[in-house]
Amino acid sequence: MKSKAILVVTALLIYISIGEKDIKCDPTPEPINGQSATEDELQALDTQRRGDPLNIGKNIKYIEALGKKDYRLLAEDRKYYQNLTEKYPAESVAWYLLGYANLETQKNLLPVVFGGAIHWDDYINPAIDGFTKAISLSPESLDAYHGMVDLYEYVLFYKDAYRYQKMILEKVPNDLEANLRMLDICKHLLLIGHANYNDPTYYNPIFVRETYNYATKVLDLDPNNVGGLMALMTAYGGAGDYIKAISVGKKILKVRPELQRIEREINSYYFKLKIPDRRYIPADIKLE
Predict the structure, then answer these.
(1) Rounded distance, CA 138 to CA 96, Å?
(2) Mean pLDDT per 10-residue interval, the chain, length 288 residues
(3) Single pTM value for the model
(4) For residue 24, with 0-12 CB atoms within 10 Å meaning exposed, 13-18 middle and 19 or more buried, which class applies?
(5) Number of H helices, E strands in the chain
(6) Burial of 272 (0-12, 13-18, 19+ CB in 10 A)
(7) Cα–Cα distance measured from residue 99 to residue 106, given in angstroms and rounded to the nearest whole number
(8) Do 64 and 104 contact (CB within 8 A), yes or no?
(9) Which residues contact 1 (CB under 8 A, 6 or more apart)?
């Protein structure tokens, strides 16, 4: 039995070792949905984009399919979009597509959250340059703004993502999805610190208020929107108004009773009413 156990452990270690080598040596991820495109499918998509070179939808389909097939093919194909900007230098779409192709190449490498490298000179900076040029040529088109938000979220630069999402909302203030995306960005900017007793985390008053403002906007557009209600509860909690946070949490459970984590959140607010949390310090602001 002892020898069998040793063999099992040895085999497991070998398996883990091989797996680690695979992760380091092959940064091309498996397709998330379905299989990667066949050669014939890629050829058909390529023909479609070349027949309508400034059609965003056709180009994005090809870029995404090629990236799933092999990021190296997409890295090589970026030359096509560089040539497109030279052929159509005054067309914002050409520059947007150049930025998009560079960003998608980066995204098809091993993700940053899993230890993948950010290739600033190769992909990220050219993507920024492409999106920036597109915005300068067509400041009313939202595509390149969305590209910048995607890019900065990918590299975890949430303040920059916030800045560009705010530009989008200046153009489409009543867009529900745009407001929800802003809430998703703001949640990454709510806290400052490390959440322990020696070095507590503080709620950032600027982004507590921003979360409150965008949450109320979402609820004006869609009164029972769970994302908006959850953000509003978080904002009240971040401002230390635990009674209102509890009230909003109970409303969420009326809409989505299966959300057990909301029950836990409500219980944590009840606890904080009795014993202040020395790890998370609320912002000293009034939201209403």
Answers:
(1) 10
(2) 40 35 34 70 97 98 94 95 98 98 92 78 97 98 98 96 98 98 97 76 96 98 97 97 98 96 96 90 92
(3) 0.84
(4) exposed
(5) 13, 3
(6) middle
(7) 11
(8) yes
(9) none
